Amino acid sequence: MNIDFLPTAQPMARLIQELHKLPGIGPKSAQRLAYFLLRSSEEEARALAEAIVAVKERIIFCSICQNITETNPCPICQDKERDHTKICVVEEPLDILALERTRGYHGLYHVLHGVISPMNGIGPDELRVKELLARLQGGATQEIILATNPNLEGEATAMYLHRLITPLGIKVTRLARGLPFGSDLEYADEITLIRALEGRHEI
Ligand SMILES: [Zn+2]
């Protein structure tokens, strides 16, 4: 939507335009947020701006698991106490936070950064699948847990990875069906998630 017509000072129009680019932020929300920021103190506004810049300047991707991190490898990949024979494959970094909150999983992770979605022109090459296969060459991995979301694209991605990994002689499991179909791992409560983990089955 073109919001150039807004009768407002140019810096406000610019802020509204930028906020409107964020996911889930429509023109009305963008205006509300912009006026909220206008009313907040200069200190608060600066803290927000600096937090955004710091994310871009300091956050990198772990060269092993592809999670977002400040150090490479990330703390999870470096942690010798964790079970390095298991890799849980997730769509997004936020899914790792959800699984870590359960405290029921102590293996490693791999972030795909998306799912296979022919409708959106996203194939396996657009995801961090090559990086996952490279990790499996080391021979330390005994189980791959496919924890993509329980929706059509998540299932299709899990099936694709299953076909790719099973011939390597590695056990491939999928989270149990406790998660409602069409739901998002990120928003699952801890009990549901831990049951889904414990009840995972070989596919
Ligand atoms: Zn890592």
Describe this structure in words.
With 203 residues, the chain is an alpha/beta fold. The chain has 8 helices and 7 strands. It has a 5-stranded mixed sheet with strand order 4-3-5-6-7. Strands 1-2 form a two-stranded antiparallel sheet. Helix 1 (10-20) crosses helix 2 and helix 5 (93-102) packs across helix 8. The longest helix is centred in the N-terminal third of the chain and has 17 residues, at 42-58. It binds zinc ion (ZN). The site of zinc ion has 8 residues, from helix 4. Zinc ion binds next to helix 4.
Top keywords for this entry?
203 residues; alpha/beta; five-stranded mixed β-sheet; two-stranded antiparallel ribbon; 42% helix; binds zinc ion
Element-by-element helix/strand order: HHHEEHEHEHEHEHE
Number of helices: 8
| C-alpha Rg (nearest Å) | 20 Å
**Average pLDDT reading:** 90
Spatial ordering of strands, largest sheet: 4-3-5-6-7
Structural class: alpha/beta
Task: Tell the overall outline.
Answer: elongated
How much helicity do the residues have?
40-55%
Count of strand segments = 7
Question: Uncertain regions: pLDDT < 50 for 5+ in a row?
Answer: none
Residue share in β-strands = 5-15%
| Largest sheet composition | 5 strands, mixed
N/C terminus separation:
45 Å
The unique ligands bound to this protein are:
zinc ion
